[in-house]
Amino acid sequence: MRKVTNEKTTRIILHILIWAVILGLPIYAARRFQMGQHFLLTYYTILAISALIFYTNYLFLIPVLFFQKKRYSYYISVLALLFFFYFITDFASEQVFSIISKNGYSDQIIRQPGEERPLRLPPIPMRRPVFVIAMPNAQLIGYTTSSLFMVFLSLGLRVLERQSKIEKRQEEMEKANLNAELTLLKNQISPHFFFNTLNNIYSLIGRNNEDSKNAVIKLSKMMRYVLNESGEDNRLLSDEIEFMNNYIDLMKLRIGAKTKLNVNFPTEYKDLMIPHLLFISLIENAFKYGISVQEESYVNISLLCGENNISFKCENGLPESNNGPIFASTGIGLENLKKRLSLLYPDRHELEINRTKNKFEVNLIIQL
After folding, report:
1. Which residue of 1, 184, 209, 262 shows the fewest CB atoms closer than 10 Å?
2. What CATH number should be reported for the domain holding residue 244?
């Protein structure tokens, strides 16, 4: 509501400024070129009638008829408006010429060379211009031209304003839909993430009670980070790196001697704002499908930060022992990531997924 009020106020102020200029120019011209008072009287009379035509169309006929798809009624109303104001214009012209003919021209001033004071000529009786007498239709043509200009000007201005409102409303709706979809996607991450993490902790129970306790403590810290900042869409890169390191530390508890883990996160970088939990699904998948206690396996994770871009790479092997039905992927995390990237960084990201028989690799480059 406040935004709409501000737009109306701005529009009113703009109209006032424009009319102030239009009203002020003839006063300057009259003083600059020493025109008589008849010029101002004629100008303001015509201007007042033009303003009435403009705002009658702008404020009433266009919103009530034209925008309501009552086009025939609108055209008839415009013709009636022009017909009515033609007689008003004719009557006003008679009154103006009557006033001027009584008073004559305002003092005409002639400055003689070498004289300090100008020479004032006596008033000259005012009559209708010769071209109006010789061409009776000249006044009609002049009125028709100027009034149609006011009609089309007000119509064009009103249509542009309406189109601008429609576009702003569409942008707001698209933004609201985008935020709603991003919120939904973000809310899907946490349950998916905690479900996988709890499964990992469950695998530790019975094998190492101390590691299980440490895993629960780590998980509680990570939950606190997610839940305390759940209302924010973006986080500092440093916070996200810390969160990923905590998750990797948690996963180390279940890594055996046959798994090689290589993590390369930068220590010096520009602390950019990035979407929350953007990379965690890729790391989850790497640990879920890339480690094995029976075979040689590996997980490589790296992050490179530029001035306004981020490059993330996650690579893991695909051990034969992880091809059973228990390791079947639902694809929730990866599909979620694709949707978020398409909404947040359209045409500003590159996601490359390569899978072979023995390797799964993801390369993601984001232009922030």
Report:
1. 1
2. 3.30.565.10
Regarding whether 158 and 209 lie in a shared domain, the answer is no
Question: What length is written for the chain?
Answer: 368
What does the alpha-carbon distance between residue 251 and residue 280 come to, in Å, rounded to a whole number?
12
**Parent domain of 230:** 183-367
Residue 160's alpha-carbon distances to 154, 155, 164, 183, in angstroms, are: 10, 9, 6, 34
Cα dist from 207 to 104, 180, 194, whole Å: 113, 43, 21
User: How far does Cα 356 stand from its chain's mean position?
Assistant: 43
Domain membership flag for residue 271? yes
CB 265 within 8 A of CB 249: no
- Mark whether 89 and 237 lie in a shared domain: no
Whether residue 201 contacts residue 217, with contact meaning beta carbons closer than 8 Å, is answered with no
